[in-house]
Design goal:
The strands form two sheets. Strands 6, 7, 8, 9, 10, 11, 12, 13 and 14 form a nine-stranded mixed β-sheet that branches. A five-stranded antiparallel β-sheet has the order 2-1-5-4-3, with helices on one face. With 266 residues, it is α+β, with helices and mostly antiparallel strands. The longest helix has 15 residues. It has two domains: 99 residues, D-amino Acid Aminotransferase, Chain A, domain 1 (2-Layer Sandwich); 159 residues, D-amino Acid Aminotransferase, Chain A, domain 2, CATH 3.20.10.
Length: 266
């Protein structure tokens, strides 16, 4: 079941014309969100933030805005059956919404952490990194390559080897009493959870710094994690690189403090 162009459709097939730019070039923008308690208006769903990010990308590309009331209606319908929604907008304003379940091993990943793989080849660098476009091939390829290495996530890097983000989320590191995250200026997605966490941490008087994650910095972190709207916070206990295996504390107390912010705002 999915929603497309104003209709709730049963099945798993979407019909597009052969000259559709979304099909030909990945010319779409999308956002993926977790719906809490089946409500778009729940504070943790951050519906407005996801819509604002879509709007910003559409304005940047000069594409048509969707019928937001119709889109909201479709998202409400699907949220009754799915906790995770992916909302896609085509250049002509048509909306396409799909739903899925939470990862079956999410609780295990949240508690025990994962292994990540450093995607250092240039073909894994994202294009239009500040936007979530349908041309997500580089991140998808990085994720596939990571799984072939026995890792659950890929870490994307820039031309100098500095870490940017994972294939699905933003990076966080704890070092010497401070949280660190790469700045938007290095070419990363402005994640909804990233912004949310920065606000929460500042409210709790936790220091937060934005700085590039060069090779010297990543060796100094005590703990690292990645975040996105679906999984919240996932610790990374091991990072595989071509020359070495880096290890971090998956059970660091500051990671639990980070996770607890969701409970405080539930």
């Amino acid at each position: 079941m999915f929603w497309y162009d104003g209709q709730l459709i049963g099945g798993s097939r979407l019909e597009l014309t052969i000259d559709n730019p979304g099909l030909l070039y990945g010319a779409t923008v999308f956002t993926t969100l977790r719906v809490y308690q089946q409500s778009l208006h729940h504070p943790l769903t951050h519906w407005r933030s996801h819509c604002d990010r879509l709007t910003s990308s559409l304005q940047t590309f000069g594409w048509q805005q969707p019928d937001w009331e119709r889109l909201c209606h479709g998202a409400n319908q699907l949220s009754e059956s799915y906790p995770v929604l992916r909302i896609t907008i085509f250049p002509d304003g048509r909306e396409w919404i799909t739903g899925r379940s939470l990862p079956s091993d999410l609780a295990q990943r949240q508690q025990q952490g994962i292994t990540a793989w450093g995607a250092f080849a240039p073909e894994y660098q994202r294009s239009l990194a500040a936007h979530k476009t349908g041309n997500y091939l580089s991140a998808w390829l990085a994720g596939q390559a990571a799984r072939q290495q026995g890792a659950a996530e890929a870490i994307l890097v820039d031309a100098t080897g500095s870490w940017l983000e994972t294939s699905t989320g933003n990076l966080w590191g704890w070092q010497e009493g401070c949280w660190w995250t790469p700045p938007l200026e290095v070419g990363i997605l402005p994640g909804v959870v990233r912004s949310q966490l920065m606000d929460w941490l500042k409210t709790q008087d936790y220091p937060v710094q934005e700085a590039p994650w060069d090779q010297e910095r990543v060796l100094q972190f005590e703990a690292i994690a990645y975040t996105n709207s679906v999984v919240q916070v996932i610790p990374i206990h091991t990072v595989l690189t071509s020359s070495q295996s880096l290890t971090y504390e998956a059970f660091h107390p500051m990671l639990e403090s980070l996770r607890s912010l969701w409970q405080q705002h539930h």
